[in-house]
């Protein structure tokens, strides 16, 4: 009987000692918000840096960072146009695609195969752009092959002349695209 009580007491003692060790553990729990390590968040040399995008601020940190001047939201228009074009060209029904992204509009001209209807191709192009661009963008798409050249010409015109007013030129292309709607 004494052996049985001794084993029970020993088991209880070991369990309590194990729990006490857990409570005294000096390692911080990485998921505990009190144990954030900002130096890890900004490690740009990490090979896993491109796998996840993560930012976390408290209201106080956010207000402290924005005291001087709020950051402007930046959209890389070339990157957006490239993504839209590449995604569309993954669909075998699209043979050629030209995409122009301005500060508030996306213009997509393409040549499609005969395997897809004009309306379906336009719908696919618009949905692709919608999935990539911020929601405030207006998206226009057309299967008029001549507009591919017009978009390219507009792009190179802007590259040659920074002071060029592109609004009327973009509007001309948009008006042509609206004929397809």
Automatic annotation (TrEMBL):
Sorted alphabetically, which keywords does the UniProt record give? Signal
- Asked if Cell cycle is a keyword of the record, the answer is no
Entry's PROSITE patterns? PROKAR_LIPOPROTEIN
How far does the signal peptide extend, from start to end residue?
1-20
Q: Which residues form a coiled coil?
A: none
The annotated regions of Basic and acidic residues compositional bias extend over: 31-40
Q: Name one Pfam family in it.
A: Spore_YhcN_YlaJ
Q: Which parts pass through the membrane?
A: none
Which segments carry the region annotation Disordered?
22-52
Keyword rRNA-binding (UniProt): no
Q: What protein am I looking at?
A: Lipoprotein YutC
Q: State the organism named in the record.
A: Oceanobacillus sojae
